[in-house]
Design a protein that fits this description.
By secondary structure, the protein is an alpha/beta fold. It has seven helices and eight strands. The radius of gyration is 18 Å and the shape is globular. It starts with a helix and ends in a 14-residue tail after the last helix.
């Protein structure tokens, strides 16, 4: 279970991140956020690189931190490494919004989970990625996933965090996206796990790992979510597009949060408890996929 120190770290990240991060109207803060990701990952002792891509007449960068395996998985004694796990969140915002929930909340969780995963015994690489230009049509993740496919590289699965900081215990605080074929609670205190049929095994694994830490509602959509466009509104859809297994973890954005894409998406509206619980859930999910041990959840290792 999370402790006050976990929340303090999340709050520190949020203070550094919250503020409009748009490529046209606030490019300096977007670049500052890119640097903050790289610097924080480096301070954690992770291998840091960037994935540059051309877009909107300029070059932008996805920030990648890699945790190498600590030991080899059984069955890979022929020297063939196990496929990596990806944990990702986008760091840009729409114009005019400070983007606390969308998506500073997810970036803060990404950084906190990366810190915890250092102490995990791993049989797989873990790639923690900050994607840029999600709000401009998933441009960063599409460029990254296209390169994966072109190079014929495989992954064990990608977990994409999208708005994970807003929660309410009020009945009626949660609405249902159009066409969703499952019963959705009317209280907005759960984390949604959204996968497609090709990602069903990954989604089930994430749901099992996350559910001890906070309420979870899981949804599996057919194909690549084409019939339910609200299930495609984050970087997981870029992985679906190129045939990779991926799930989105979300507080459901505008179907719960009235501040979504507005100037009122501020730090004060977030639930630190929900964020901390989400960090526990994500640590458990990634750790399970990476072949790790439960001790990764103790949260005691390092800054």
């Amino acid at each position: 279970m999370s402790d006050p120190t976990d929340r303090d770290r999340l709050l520190t990240h949020l203070h550094a991140l919250v503020g409009e991060r748009h490529p046209v109207t606030s490019p300096d803060h977007l670049q500052h956020t890119e640097a903050y990701l790289a610097d924080t990952f480096s301070q954690l002792g992770l291998q840091v690189s960037t994935h540059p891509f051309a877009a909107m007449g300029s070059t932008y960068r996805n920030v990648i931190a890699t945790l190498l395996p600590t030991h080899q998985a059984l069955g890979h004694g022929n020297g063939s490494p196990a496929t990596p796990v990806i944990l990702a969140a986008h760091y840009d915002t729409v114009e005019g919004s400070p983007g606390a929930d969308d998506n500073a909340s997810a970036v803060a969780v990404l950084l906190e989970v990366a810190r915890r995963l250092r102490s995990l015994d791993r049989t797989r690489e873990i790639h923690c990625i900050g994607f840029c230009l999600e709000e401009e049509g998933l441009l960063g993740s599409l460029a990254y996933a296209a390169e994966l496919r072109s190079a014929r590289r495989e992954i064990a699965g990608a977990i994409v965090l999208e708005c994970v900081g807003y929660a309410s215990d009020r009945d009626g605080s949660q609405t249902t996206p159009p066409g969703i074929p499952i019963a959705v609670p009317t209280v907005g205190n759960f984390l949604a796990v959204v996968g497609n049929t090709a990602s069903a095994e990954l989604a089930a694994s994430v749901e099992r790992a996350a559910s001890p830490h906070l309420p979870v509602v899981a949804l599996t959509v057919p194909g690549k979510g084409e019939l339910l466009p609200d299930t495609r509104r984050s970087d997981h859809a870029a992985f679906w597009h190129y045939g990779f297994s991926s799930v989105m973890l979300t507080d459901t954005a505008n179907f719960r949060n009235p501040n979504y894409h507005r100037p009122t998406d501020t730090l004060e509206t977030l639930s630190l408890k929900f964020l901390a619980d989400a960090a526990d859930a994500v640590t458990a999910a990634v750790g399970g996929l990476a072949g790790g041990q439960k001790r990764a959840l103790d949260g005691t290792n390092g800054p």
